[in-house]
Write a structure and sequence with these properties.
The chain is an alpha+beta fold. Helix content is 28%, strand content 29%.
């Protein structure tokens, strides 16, 4: 924990231990809200424009309106101030931004009249998963039991939590979710795999969250002449995977070397995976947006 550990709640910068949100906040009673997590390198948020666009889309998707003068961009600036307040301008850190529909007496429909949304922002020191990035991670498969709008980054994460806990109990880093015989994504990551020499991943639709690292990597792959086929991997194609990796804001490009206790390919990070690790690492180091 930072020595200062200052967070932002509804217009105020306060010590985390003193931060307060009402028990009638709709984020607490309904999970009625959205969030974003940004990676920060030496005080600079990575791919902030993409995160802001996704946050705007999530807010519109669940019909939460920010107050006049507030925007995803202004919230990112508040998070930058928190980096300064907490002495996190050097090294790696993360920003967390959460917006709920606000505080109202419990009723399923939206409050009438409208109430002000609750805004919470925090920052924290972050250490990359260097060993797993170098040696690869174990993963399990798990049924995708989530709702039908996975493309919105909402607070409704109980299915993700349960699948992630199952992975932890089985000694795995992540759970790869499968819906109707199709690999969708992870509990907090996107998955890419090489099948018969072709790099594949699930297309952006309502079944997956359009990951920011996924989007950045798609563009970087194009720049280094790596073709990406946005065709889902079928569960019966899993035995033919020669490489598998996951991507995320805090996981970068992480090789998967074991899936359900069986080796993927040769059981070590593949050459294409390592190549994509390098181009993403170079983009992070340069502060690419």
């Amino acid at each position: 924990m930072n020595s200062k550990d200052i967070v932002y709640v509804n217009g105020s910068f306060v010590p985390r231990a003193e931060a307060r949100i009402s028990v009638e906040d709709r984020g607490f009673v309904f999970g009625d809200g959205v969030y974003e997590v940004l990676r920060v390198v030496n005080g600079r948020p990575f791919a902030a424009r993409f995160h802001n666009d996704r946050l705007k889309r999530s807010l519109e998707g669940v019909r939460i309106s920010l107050a006049a003068g507030d925007s995803p961009e202004s919230l990112t600036e508040i998070a930058r101030q928190l980096l300064r307040e907490n002495g996190l301008l050097e090294g790696e850190a993360t920003m967390y931004m959460q917006i709920t529909r606000g505080v109202a007496t419990r009723a399923h429909n939206f409050p009438t009249p409208d109430v002000s949304p609750t805004i919470y922002i925090s920052v924290a020191r972050f250490a990359p998963y260097s060993d797993l990035a170098r040696n690869g991670a174990p993963v399990i498969t798990h049924p995708d039991l989530r709702w039908g709008r996975c493309d919105l980054k909402t607070l409704n994460l109980l299915p993700n939590v349960l699948a992630s806990q199952t992975a932890k109990e089985r000694g795995a880093f992540e759970a790869m979710l499968i819906r109707d015989g199709v690999v969708t994504e992870g509990t907090k990551t996107n998955f890419f795999g090489v099948v018969d020499g072709s790099l594949r991943t699930h297309p952006s639709d309502t079944h997956i969250l359009p990951g920011i690292t996924r989007s950045v990597l798609r563009d970087l792959a194009r720049q280094v002449n790596i073709d990406l086929d946005e065709t889902p991997i079928l569960s019966d194609e899993i035995p033919r995977l020669s490489e598998l990796f996951l991507t995320g804001t805090t996981t970068d490009v992480m090789p998967v070397v074991r899936l359900d206790d069986k080796p993927v390919g040769k059981g070590k990070p593949g050459e294409l995976t390592k190549r994509l690790q390098k181009v993403l690492a170079d983009s992070l180091a340069s502060g690419g947006d």
